[in-house]
Write a structure and sequence with these properties.
By secondary structure, this protein is an alpha+beta fold. 25% of the residues lie in helices and 26% in strands.
C-alpha cells in the first residue's frame, strides 16, 4: 500500500512539473496586451490656465509589450507639450511588476491616503491595469511637505505609493532611451483667455474644422485627434511654440497639443 502511495505522489509531482506548476508556486499569469497601458502616473490639476490643463499628460506610462515612456524635463514656465523618452524592457518584467502592484491592495480603492488641508495643489493619479479590470487611486497633494497634519496610517500609505512609483520609474534603468514621437495626439481649443498674445506661427496641421468637434469639457471649446504624419508634424511644431497660439487663416487661435492624452478627447 505504501509503495502505491509513493508512486502516486511521484506521478503527481511529475505532472505538476511538466505543466509548469512546481510545488508551492502559482500558475504563471497570461501575457498582458501589448498596446494596453498597464501602469500610469499623472499629476494634474491645481491652479492652471486652460491651455496648461490641456497639455497635462502622464509623467510615466508603461505598456504591456515593455514600452516605457518617461517625461524629459522641459524649460520652466514654458507651456509646451511634454517631451518623452522611450525605453523598452522585457514584457515578463512588466507582468511581474503589475502582479506585485495589484497584490498589495494599495490600489484597490479602499486605502485611505488622506487629504491635506491645502488648496490649489495637484492631484496624483496612479493607474494599474493587468489582466482584469483597471484600478486607480487619486491622491491630493502627494508631497511630504504638506502631510504633517495627516494620520500615521495615511502618511504610511502615501509612502508606500511613492515607493511603488519609484520602483516603476526604475524599471527601465540601464535601458537604451530614445526620443519619442507620437503617432496620435489630442488637440484642444481652450476657452479664450483675457491676455492672449497674438500668434506668429502658422498652424501646421489640417484645417481645424476638419477634425475638431465641440467639447463636453467646460474648459474647452472643441477638441479632436490627429494621427500618423499629421500628429508627428503638429507635435514637433508645438514643442517650439510656447503658449500654443497659432495663425489659422490670419486669425490667432489657441490649439494645445497633447502627445499622450490619458482619456482622449473630451
Amino acid at each position: 500500500m505504501r509503495s502505491h502511495r509513493i508512486r502516486a505522489v511521484a506521478a503527481l509531482l511529475s505532472a505538476l512539473t511538466m505543466t509548469g506548476f512546481a510545488p508551492g508556486s502559482l500558475p504563471r499569469a497570461a501575457a498582458l496586451p501589448g498596446d494596453q497601458m498597464v501602469f500610469m502616473v499623472l499629476s494634474a490639476g491645481g491652479m492652471a490656465p486652460s491651455v496648461v490643463y490641456a497639455m497635462q499628460s502622464p509623467s510615466l506610462a508603461i505598456y504591456g509589450d515593455g514600452r516605457v515612456l518617461t517625461t524629459v524635463p522641459g524649460p520652466a514656465l514654458q507651456p509646451v507639450p511634454a517631451r518623452y523618452e522611450l525605453a523598452r524592457i522585457e514584457p515578463d518584467t512588466v507582468r511581474q511588476f503589475i502582479a506585485e502592484a495589484r497584490s498589495g491592495g494599495l490600489l484597490d480603492g479602499n486605502t485611505d491616503f488622506g487629504a491635506p488641508r491645502m488648496t490649489d495643489l495637484p492631484t496624483t493619479t496612479v493607474l494599474v491595469h493587468g489582466d482584469g479590470e483597471p484600478a486607480q487611486v487619486r491622491v491630493y497633494a502627494l508631497d511630504r511637505q504638506f502631510e504633517a497634519g495627516l494620520t500615521p496610517a495615511q502618511r504610511d500609505a502615501r509612502d508606500r505609493l511613492r515607493s511603488l512609483i519609484e520602483k516603476a520609474s526604475g524599471l527601465p534603468a540601464g535601458a537604451v532611451r530614445q526620443p519619442y514621437s507620437p503617432d496620435r495626439v489630442a488637440v484642444y481649443e481652450p476657452l479664450p483667455g483675457r491676455h492672449e498674445d497674438p500668434g506668429s506661427v502658422v498652424w501646421p496641421g489640417p484645417p481645424p474644422p476638419d477634425f475638431l468637434a465641440p467639447s463636453a469639457n467646460r474648459r474647452f471649446l472643441s477638441c479632436g485627434e490627429l494621427t500618423g504624419t499629421a500628429a508627428v508634424t503638429v507635435y514637433r511644431a508645438a514643442l517650439e511654440n510656447p503658449g500654443a497660439g497659432w495663425l489659422v487663416e490670419g486669425t490667432t487661435r489657441v490649439l494645445a497639443v497633447n502627445p499622450l492624452p490619458w482619456k482622449g478627447c473630451g
